[in-house]
Design goal:
216 residues; mainly beta; Jelly Rolls; seven-stranded antiparallel beta sheet; binds N-[(3-hydroxypyridin-2-yl)carbonyl]glycine; binds fe (iii) ion
């Protein structure tokens, strides 16, 4: 247990970033083993692959998904799809209950009760990989939040405004942190700065981010 992530009471520290966004420090550390085992199952079934941006360039992160809908990017654009093109349009692996339950509990802790994701996008970053400023706007229903789980190497999260040119605040995201956002912040631009070199004691030289969504 990393005591410095917790208040003296032992309670995980919930940090409100804005009206609709809450950073739940260390929220996923309890039950970490089951969570990582579930993640390994998903990755073994549907391996990470590098998708192409609509412009035709490979993304610097490698991606897979679980749940009824998976997220895709290619020259046709971004979308959610029930079949995995890498595996002959086979269904994406089911979302492990331990992951769905964690996402639901995080959403509730952040003020979004009843969250029931139908998609979990999994991104793997090696040192140097990044995520440029973007909006998450491929989902059908913006009344539902997005719940993100960070594992492995630390990242700097950029939290911008509703216009790409708005100034962005920066927050570190550490192993076990969860970020929940929705409401008035649902369409804010955000991104991840290039991951710094390092080796995480549990995850090795990588960062894995899971984002849970109601996509369909
Ligand atoms: C990442 N996250 O943390 C990328 N999107 O690697 C996202 O793009 C993201 O963390 C929407 C909500 C939370 C997120
Ligand atoms: Fe995003």
């Amino acid at each position: 247990m990393q005591a410095d992530l917790f208040e003296p009471s032992g309670a995980p520290w919930h940090e409100r970033l804005s009206a609709g966004a809450v950073l739940l420090h260390g929220f996923a550390l309890e039950g970490e083993e089951a969570l990582l085992a579930a993640l390994r199952t998903v990755i073994a079934a549907a391996p990470f692959r590098k998708m192409l941006t609509p412009g035709g360039r490979p993304m610097s992160v490698a991606t897979t998904s679980c749940g009824p809908l998976g997220w895709l990017s290619d020259r046709q654009g971004y979308r959610y799809q029930a079949g995995d093109p890498l595996r002959g349009q086979a269904p994406w692996p089911p979302m492990p209950p331990v992951l769905a339950d964690l996402a639901q509990r995080a959403a509730a802790a952040a003020g979004y009760p009843g969250f029931s994701p139908d998609s979990c996008l999994i991104n793997r970053y090696v040192p140097g990989a990044k995520m440029s400023l973007h909006q998450d706007k491929d989902e059908q229903d913006f009344s539902q939040p997005i719940v993100s789980l960070s594992l492995g190497l630390p990242a700097i999260f950029q939290f911008g405004g509703l216009a790409r040119s708005d100034p962005a605040q920066r927050y570190p995201l550490l192993h076990g942190d969860m970020l929940v956002w929705g409401g008035v912040d649902r369409l804010r631009f955000h991104g991840i700065l290039p991951i710094r070199e390092g080796v995480h004691p549990r995850m090795g030289p990588q960062r894995i981010n899971l984002t849970f969504r109601v996509a369909g």
